[in-house]
């Protein structure tokens, strides 16, 4: 069973335990070398998810940690996950292409798509080989996480009560609302991705609060989950579009792939319309009213 926070006098201690649990699981998975194929994909996915969860928990207790420690620890875990990003993106591109070609009623050249998939497979293999064979970066990642494992014991967390958690939740929710406004006004891939990160962080925060999680599996939870998934697919398509234009065609692959960029753009337009509709539902709530509702769930 996943570790979650409960409303009692041990919440502060439990917060540290939760962070250590996620780091320990990450170290355990990363130590299973050699990591190849599907095992590597799964480990990278799980470790990235755990480190995002850690950052979300840090955001929950931000008021009690203090800004200096919060920013230092958040940067530490963000940097720790950085070497895993390229591996994740390389696999996501293949999955995204497969999903796009399955669901799209288009007339793309089957040969051109097959050749491009081979290109993505080779690209992924190079990325994975570099990750696995680069012992310096790999060992640096393990050392960084091992050192981070010692940090929670130094945190001077006082009583983590609802006022602390409310501050953390509201901060991320309001940041997500602002990112929604920015992305609505200027629909760049960068703005949409920034919005997605805020959505995911808020969703992780709700999931680690046990009494709250039991309630948010309904309407709010479904909306956040759907929004995160929609923005995630849009982000992967944006990367795929970039790879087609800057790598595949430049490397001499079939210019018929230009047609693929049109299909990608059409799908992204659909996803963004859906995301903004979901965004209006999620962020149409007044922050105070939502925090009051979450407080009632927390204290129920």
- How can the largest sheet be summarized? none
Q: Work out the helicity level.
A: over 70%
Strand element count: 0
Rg is 21 Å
Name of the CATH superfamily: CHAD domain
| Second rung of CATH, namely the architecture | Alpha solenoid
CATH topology: CHAD domain
Query: In terms of structural class, how would the helical and strand content be classed?
Result: mainly alpha
Instruction: Give start-end ranges of low-pLDDT stretches.
Output: none
The portion of residues forming beta strands comes to under 5%
Distance between the termini: 21 Å
Outline the fold blueprint:
Layout: H1 11-30, H2 37-60, H3 62-65, H4 67-103, H5 110-133, H6 135-148, H7 162-185, H8 189-208, H9 210-216, H10 219-248, H11 257-282, H12 287-299
Helix pairs in contact: 1-2, 1-6, 2-4, 2-8, 4-5, 4-6, 4-10, 7-8, 7-12, 8-10, 9-12, 10-11
Brief rundown of the structure:
This protein has 300 residues and is mainly α. Helix content is 81%, strand content 0%.
Provide structural commentary.
The model has no long low-confidence stretch (mean pLDDT 89). The longest helix has 37 residues, at 67-103. The chain has one domain: CHAD domain, CATH 1.40.20.10. Helices cover 81% and strands 0% of the residues. It is built from twelve helices and no strands. It has 300 residues and is mainly α.
Key terms for this structure?
CHAD domain, 300 residues, mainly alpha
């Amino acid at each position: 069973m996943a570790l979650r926070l409960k409303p009692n006098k041990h919440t502060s201690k439990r917060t540290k335990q939760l962070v250590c649990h996620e780091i320990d699981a990450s170290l355990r998975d990363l130590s299973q070398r050699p990591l190849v194929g599907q095992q590597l994909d799964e480990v990278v996915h799980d470790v990235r998810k755990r480190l995002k969860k850690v950052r979300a928990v840090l955001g929950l207790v931000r008021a009690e940690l203090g800004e200096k420690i919060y920013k230092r620890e958040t940067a530490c875990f963000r940097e720790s996950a950085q070497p895993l990003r390229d591996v994740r993106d390389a696999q996501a591109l293949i999955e995204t292409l497969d999903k796009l070609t399955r669901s799209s009623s288009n007339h793309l050249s089957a040969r051109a798509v097959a050749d491009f998939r081979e290109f993505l497979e080779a690209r992924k293999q190079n990325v994975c080989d570099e990750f696995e064979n680069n012992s310096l970066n790999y060992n640096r990642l393990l050392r960084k996480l091992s050192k981070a494992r010692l940090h929670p014991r130094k945190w001077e967390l006082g009583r983590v009560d609802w006022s602390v958690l409310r501050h953390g939740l509201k901060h991320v929710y309001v940041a997500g609302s602002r990112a929604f406004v920015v992305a609505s006004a200027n629909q760049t891939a960068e703005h949409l991705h920034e919005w997605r990160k805020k959505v995911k962080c808020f969703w992780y925060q709700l999931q680690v609060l046990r009494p709250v999680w039991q309630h948010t599996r309904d309407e709010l939870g479904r909306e956040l989950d759907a929004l995160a998934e929609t923005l995630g697919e849009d982000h992967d398509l944006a990367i795929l579009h970039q790879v087609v234009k800057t790598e595949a065609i430049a490397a001499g692959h079939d210019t018929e792939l230009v047609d693929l960029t049109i299909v990608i753009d059409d799908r992204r337009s659909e996803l963004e319309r859906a995301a903004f509709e979901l965004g209006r539902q999620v962020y149409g709530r007044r922050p105070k009213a939502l925090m009051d509702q979450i407080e009632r769930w927390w204290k129920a």
